């Protein structure tokens, strides 16, 4: 791989030179938005969907992104090309930009736009083969009417608190409940519960981010003829499920084999989870924005 180059406000700069001001309100207040995107064999998976979500998040916080969606598409593709990346992870960040120490975003005339494309440390193979244990945590999901989980903002403290609780309990991921006690999602992934032929994932309105992977899995499940639903999920539903799995850009589809000490199903990744993981892995290499001409890939 070539020396890593970061897109920073219209230029490609070396990683060590990719710096932003400590007065950036993204740094001071978490004021900004971001996306995490995957490239598979030179195809950017669902780039349009990720960018639409980015622009909607920015709109929700009245942050103007100084590029059109088409321009941003070209920037992402160009960043991947500059780094000669075939498989990897893209982090796109738009922060409010540098201002003064006050809260007022009006003191930040110019947002910072950053695109990082790099190789991804994949989740260990054993995690997919064995599944993972998780817990539910005391930290509740931000209420949608307070800070919408649909806004993928730089304020990820809600999620970080969940991750800290999980790690203190000796597991790597956890489920957040909403203020009514319904299951919403993990700290960085959506959750699906399988019972018989029925697959359920919590509706976005209950406090789950509308994940791009989640949507792809819903489509695949419907195509494969499963009874796919978006319905409220309780902890009891999770405990007595045949299968539970998490979905996300980084995790893809990962089986959960234990929740709060309750063994899920037979304690190993279930057949529906395995089918969906397999179908998803086939989908990602054929779907998405092509970065290179054919000959580069072969
Ligand atoms: N929920 C949260 C809170 C997340 O941060 C993510 C990762 N973006 C997801 C779910 C999964 O979304 P996606 O499939 O778009 O990565």
Hetero groups: 4'-deoxy-4'-aminopyridoxal-5'-phosphate
> What composes the largest sheet?
9 strands, mixed
Count of alpha/pi helices: 9
State mean pLDDT (0 to 100 scale): 96
Rg measurement, Å: 20 Å
N- to C-terminal separation? 16 Å
Description of the structure:
The chain is globular, with a radius of gyration of 20 Å. The chain is built from 9 helices and 16 strands. By secondary structure, it is α+β, with helices and mostly antiparallel strands. The model has no long low-confidence stretch (mean pLDDT 96). It binds 4'-deoxy-4'-aminopyridoxal-5'-phosphate. 4'-deoxy-4'-aminopyridoxal-5'-phosphate (PMP) is lined by residues 36, 159, 185, 188-190, 209, 211-214, 247-249.
Quick overview of this protein structure:
By secondary structure, this protein is an alpha+beta fold. The chain has helices spanning 25-29, 47-60, 69-82, 125-130, 157-168, 212-223, 235-239, 271-286, 294-297, and strands spanning 5-8, 11-14, 32-40, 43-44, 88-95, 112-118, 132-140, 174-177, 183-186, 190-195, 198-201, 227-230, 243-248, 252-259, 262-263, 289-290.
Characteristics of this structure?
alpha+beta, globular, binds 4'-deoxy-4'-aminopyridoxal-5'-phosphate
Q: Topology of this protein?
A:
Layout: E1 5-8, E2 11-14, H1 25-29, E3 32-40, E4 43-44, H2 47-60, H3 69-82, E5 88-95, E6 112-118, H4 125-130, E7 132-140, H5 157-168, E8 174-177, E9 183-186, E10 190-195, E11 198-201, H6 212-223, E12 227-230, H7 235-239, E13 243-248, E14 252-259, E15 262-263, H8 271-286, E16 289-290, H9 294-297
Parallel strand pairs: 7-8, 7-14, 11-12
Antiparallel strand pairs: 1-2, 1-6, 3-4, 3-5, 4-16, 5-6, 8-9, 10-11, 10-13, 13-14, 14-15
The structure holds 4'-deoxy-4'-aminopyridoxal-5'-phosphate.
4'-deoxy-4'-aminopyridoxal-5'-phosphate is lined by residues 36, 159, 185, 188-190, 209, 211-214, 247-249.
